[in-house]
Amino acid sequence: MTEAPFVPREKLFKQQQYFQSLTKHTFLKGRYDVITSVAIPLALAGTSLFMIGRGVYNMSHGIGKKE
Predict the structure, then answer these.
(1) pLDDT band at 46 (very low <50, low <70, confident <90, very high)
(2) Cα(47)–Cα(52) distance, rounded to whole angstroms?
(3) Residues sharing a CB contact under 8 Å with residue 9, sequence separation 6 or more, in sequence order
(4) At 34, is the secondary structure helix, strand, or coil?
(5) Transmembrane residues, as ranges (predicted)?
(6) What is the DSSP letter of 62?
(7) Is 0.90 topped by the overall pTM?
(8) What sign has the CA pseudo-torsion 28, 30, 34, 37?
(9) Closest Cα partner for 6 from 32, 17, 15, 18?
(10) In angstroms, rounded to a whole number, what is the distance separating the alpha carbons of residues 38 and 24?
């Protein structure tokens, strides 16, 4: 007994030709790869910079200091 393939052969060849014709980097070729490879790290970096800046400001002005 043989299993039926998950994807028809023609569709697989079409997807292979599409991905091989793209000139983007390998990790950005998928549909949602830009979100996971670029947007999430940029959001994390931006948030961390904001929180570091707020902490420096609070320390320099003595805000939130326990007496």
Answers:
(1) very high
(2) 9
(3) none
(4) helix
(5) 34-57
(6) T
(7) no
(8) negative
(9) 15
(10) 14
